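User: quick one, sequence for these tokens?
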């Protein structure tokens, strides 16, 4: 039987009630990395809204790994308690709580979008950013200080991801996602645009993918065997005019990640350089990349980007383009996207009993 948007899905022992996932979306609303009422209400509402998986925003594995001083973090044991409140509420609504573990690399230390996304220097409350090579993001004006990671410091990054995953488990999350997309630290290692290293972490495909593989293996190693690990990648840098990260390399990496026990590759794109040329920004603009990775490997894939309607999300799953429909901005517009999708598609989904008197009559 063909899967639909409301077919359940299992990863190891984790049962996901439907194929809608809330895409990770930074809220820039934390102080010192702590989750607060905003995060509980924001993520909690999307769980009330029926999404099968509710993923946190990029959650920094170290203070320097934050995009802005307002990012969510999990670099200390003190962060666990407020995250646990969120995972347990999400779970109580029948959704699967997931956390994205992240390091922003050279794109760290910026003000939040509504304050301009400008680099913040250490004297003004920012910090020195770290990257595979001394190639700063081409900011207009002075880029923030950037430090090229030593091999020993790279091992420290792997340890930060390990400790973050242990805490995430403690905080009750069921799925850990490694963020290796959008031009942040792990993607910076993958792409020859940002990785000019001449050691074991630069040059060949094998070397550029080493850190992503090490981090994934480490997270997989501390994450229980019965729970899933996802990895988000950018399928392409959209920089075909230069030596860059592309779909062919993404297929190879997805294969390697499958061998490492990754349960789903979350397929996004771009973020390495402002010169990127996005061929199309219409509905489902990144879905074809997920489809290629799904066709050419054995790993399950999630498709994200421009999925805005129930019928489109259902089409992605039922035509086998991807196993999960990952919905970002439409979830900002409509926290009840999944419940509304069930209505549109005539699928059986329970509204919370508190809201039952409002359930639309067919
Ligand atoms: C994002 N995106 C994003 N991606 C990610 O991997 N981690 C993150 O923390 C964020 N943060 C974030 C914040 C906001 C406000 C937006 C709008 C986006 C990207 C997001 O997850 C998604 O991939 C894109 O928005 C494309 O999907 P949609 O929005 O077209 O469904």
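Assistant:
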């Amino acid at each position: 039987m063909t899967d639909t948007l409301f077919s359940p899905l299992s990863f190891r022992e984790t049962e996901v009630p439907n194929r809608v996932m809330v895409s990770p979306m930074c809220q820039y609303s934390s102080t010192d990395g702590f989750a607060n009422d905003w995060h509980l209400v924001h993520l909690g509402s999307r769980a009330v809204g029926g999404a099968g998986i509710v993923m946190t925003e990029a959650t920094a594995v170290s203070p320097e790994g934050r995009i802005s001083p307002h990012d969510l973090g999990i670099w200390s044991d003190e962060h666990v308690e407020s995250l646990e409140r969120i995972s347990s509420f999400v779970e109580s609504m029948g959704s699967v709580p997931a956390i994205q573990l992240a390091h922003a690399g050279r794109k760290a230390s910026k003000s939040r979008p509504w304050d301009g996304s400008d680099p913040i220097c250490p004297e003004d409350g920012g910090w020195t950013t770290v990257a595979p090579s001394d190639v700063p993001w081409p900011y207009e004006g002075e880029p923030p200080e950037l430090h090229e990671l030593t091999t020993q410091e790279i091992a420290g990054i792997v340890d930060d991801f390990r400790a973050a995953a242990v805490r995430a488990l403690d905080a009750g999350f069921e799925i850990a996602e490694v963020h290796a997309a959008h031009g942040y630290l792990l993607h910076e290692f993958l792409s020859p645009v940002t990785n000019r290293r001449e050691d074991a972490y630069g040059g060949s495909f094998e070397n550029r993918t080493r850190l992503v593989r090490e981090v994934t293996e480490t997270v997989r190693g501390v994450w229980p065997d019965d729970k899933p690990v996802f990895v988000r990648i950018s399928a392409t840098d959209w920089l075909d005019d230069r030596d860059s990260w592309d779909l062919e390399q993404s297929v190879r990496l997805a294969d390697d990640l499958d061998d490492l026990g990754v349960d789903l590759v979350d397929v996004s794109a771009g973020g390495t350089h402002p010169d990127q040329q996005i061929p199309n920004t219409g509905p489902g603009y990144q879905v074809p990349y997920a489809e290629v990775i799904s066709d050419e490997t054995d790993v399950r894939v999630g498709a994200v980007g421009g999925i805005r309607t129930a019928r489109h999300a259902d089409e992605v799953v039922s035509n086998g383009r991807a196993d999960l429909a990952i919905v970002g901005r439409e979830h900002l517009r409509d926290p009840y996207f999944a419940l509304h999708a069930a209505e549109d598609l005539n699928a059986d989904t329970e509204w919370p009993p508190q809201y039952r008197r409002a359930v639309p009559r067919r």
